[in-house]
Write a structure and sequence with these properties.
Elements: H1 2-27, H2 48-69, H3 81-112, H4 127-134, H5 136-147, H6 155-180, H7 193-233
Helix pairs in contact: 1-2, 2-3, 3-5, 3-6, 3-7, 6-7
């Protein structure tokens, strides 16, 4: 029963993000006179939200394939390729990037929505798509944390993947500015160069903190079960 629910959760979540990526790429076309940044160099790939939607689509596809061909055991004797890939993906990108996108978006929306999602975009970017890409990403990544066990990889490797990914995106938005003369996010227009550097440093630090939040939550939820399973398969050395 539980296994079937997990498979259904992964399948539905994969399909919802695949649809979100398809719909956003195909149908959310913003006229140049409404917001020029949407038609600038890079297209939809300017936005971290779009990158993350693609990441979540890939991740939940891997989860679904692991349900079918791998294992979701707490402490498998031999991890399949899909299980190892799933665990690495979740630890290094799946959890921290999803939470980073969701939290930073809604914090900035609370401060001033014009900094991230101007009202002028409402007719072109539907509310349900907004919640799929900025709210549900946090919900589904937390449900994944609760429903399915994982073994966190070495910090040096997974943190290296996360930091490399975020630095790549940071370089990318500067390439876009160099090519088009516009910042991807309006908040950057109101920051001086020193404040922009501080802003980027704070965001990168926050993203790293989210990695440790994910690791801590995983230990809280699955740590005792992992220890119990490990002890149950260890030989009793006293006998």
């Amino acid at each position: 029963m539980r296994e079937g629910l997990v498979i259904g959760f992964h399948a539905v979540t994969f399909l919802q993000y695949a649809f979100a990526v398809f719909y956003d790429y195909t149908y959310t076309i913003v006229p140049h006179d409404v917001k020029s940044v949407h038609n600038a160099y890079g297209g939809k790939f300017k936005f971290l939200t779009f990158w993350d939607a693609i990441l979540q689509t890939m991740f939940f596809l891997i989860c679904f394939l692991n349900d079918l061909f791998g294992t979701n055991a707490v402490n498998p004797k031999k991890s399949s390729f899909t299980r190892k890939l799933k665990d690495y993906f979740y630890a290094s990108l799946g959890f921290p990037v999803a939470m980073f996108v969701g939290v930073t978006f809604w914090v900035l929306m609370f401060v001033d929505r014009e900094l991230v999602l101007p009202k002028a975009l409402d007719p072109y970017f539907p509310w349900w798509l907004n919640h799929l890409m900025h709210t549900m990403i946090m919900v589904t990544t937390m449900l994944e944390m609760i429903f399915v066990p994982r073994q966190y990889p070495k910090r040096s490797r997974s943190l290296g993947i996360l930091v490399s990914f975020m630095l790549t995106y940071l370089v990318w938005i500067h390439v876009i500015y160099y090519k088009s003369g516009v910042w991807v996010y309006p908040v950057m227009d109101v920051l001086t160069l020193p404040l922009r550097i501080v802003f980027f440093a704070v965001l990168l630090t926050f993203c790293v903190i989210l990695y440790f939040v994910g690791e801590t939550l995983n230990n809280i939820i699955w740590g005792k079960k992992y220890i119990a399973v490990t002890k149950s398969v260890e030989p009793d050395l006293k006998t």
